[in-house]
């Protein structure tokens, strides 16, 4: 039984990991609580749903969703965040909350609060390994999370844009003085964050076979935020490990303590964690005021 | 001079029920008065102390459930239950403030959101105490030493008194040494620490005082609607209340009343607005933050700008200075 909980925790954790990578990039670089992250990618996922129900091949539909997530997040950054970037902490956070509500209500007005089946066609088979059930889909999701982590860290280390992103995360004025195009780079960061979010959201929907408006905030932004804080803000490795730990905590609490109070206990564990180790397990290299 | 206007306003408020004579309108005004106190408490925490708290509805819920349980299940009189629930909510607020006394901005916001989620799950699932999904019904109406506040008009005077007392208390807190300490913490907590302000203590105090007012309002509310429902204290509700304080202007007590008035009365005017209220709040939040981050009545808010335009002060002086320099 323990091994089954472990496998479940690992697979739900790797779904969270993909969402967290995009979230943590933005969070780590601009120190802005991107409240709208989940709702933006939820809208992208609903675009995929719309395309699939219109009869378009799932792969093309997912590409369409990823592109719409990229564009959507760039638009949000341009109109709602850019002009408040330097005005303290409260102002941009509230602006982000506003964007989240706009996105969520747009979804509610178009698609309503119903739960839709998400038929993407890549339904995996189940492997039975000595009493433990492992879905092949779960293995694919895990591999996808790890490979995206590797790709993004190579992108940050090896490309010019990636180096620009790291420079901006250390100091925006210095980066600007060194000739990094600040606004364009930040746009790209948001775009990548949105695109990765849509991929994570689609895998989430594939994992549960359904899609509903709650994948945005309750299951997206908040989980990504929790995972980012457990793993360490602004660190890619931390995002993946934090997300997998969050998945493990959730499945262990649900399996051994109580399913009714699962969410409350997870919150309690997280709050305790914040109070004991606010910098996370893998803090980024830049000093932050805790 | 200013006090004279306030007293006139209060006298006018005393005459509202006989003037409008419509039970439904009086009810809306009652709800407006109670939400105003919540908005004031949010203003104390977010506007004056700069701690972005997104879980105020949880404290309203704590006050409401505490008072409902004390009166329905233990048979305590209204006034005792009311005061105990304020104290209980304040105590929980102090504990939360104590835990978060060193936390930076984001962590505090996350902790308050988490606290709200925990409270909601407990309200929903602790069935022997909170009644679960059914909530607690048949909460008695307020009754102070034999006088029943059983009609909207009678309750109106209780709500008005509660709002006036809370407003005066908040006003005095904000203009005292404590209030200035809150503002110093908001503007720069390190500088505040160097000026000899005990930042951690004041953060705890701020949270506790705010929570007392939120809890009292929750208790009064539950005795007015006579029903405690676990679905009234969600994160959406917290955000809506937060928007009341933001719209009026963070750091302006009178602004909180104006913001609350707009957000309580507008959904009542049209049903279709009620459906779109969260979308409206979202758009309002973004637009306000981009153009008027200090709200309608805050510093350099819409109000001050309008006055400046009328007096021809905006732009004129600055542009002359620019061309001269």
Structure description:
The complex is a heterodimer of chains A (290) and B (325). With 290 residues, chain A is mainly α. Chain A has one domain (13-122, 135-276): ABC transporter involved in vitamin B12 uptake, BtuC. Chain A has 11 helices and 4 strands. In chain A, the strands form 2 sheets. A two-stranded antiparallel sheet of chain A has the order 1-4. A two-stranded antiparallel ribbon of chain A has the order 2-3. The longest helix of chain A has 29 residues, at 2-30. Chain B is mainly alpha-helical and 325 residues long. Chain B has one domain: Orthogonal Bundle (ABC transporter involved in vitamin B12 uptake, BtuC). Chain B contains 17 helices and 4 strands. Chain B has helices at residues 2-14, 16-20, 23-48, 56-72, 78-99, 105-125, 127-130, 152-174, 177-187, 189-194, 199-225, 235-248, 253-269, 271-275, 277-291, 302-310, 316-324, and strands spanning 136-137, 143-144, 147-148, 227-228. Chain B has a two-stranded antiparallel ribbon. The model of chain B is unreliable at 314-325 (pLDDT under 50). Classes of the chains: A mainly alpha (290), B mainly alpha (325). The interface between A and B is large, with 41 and 41 residues.
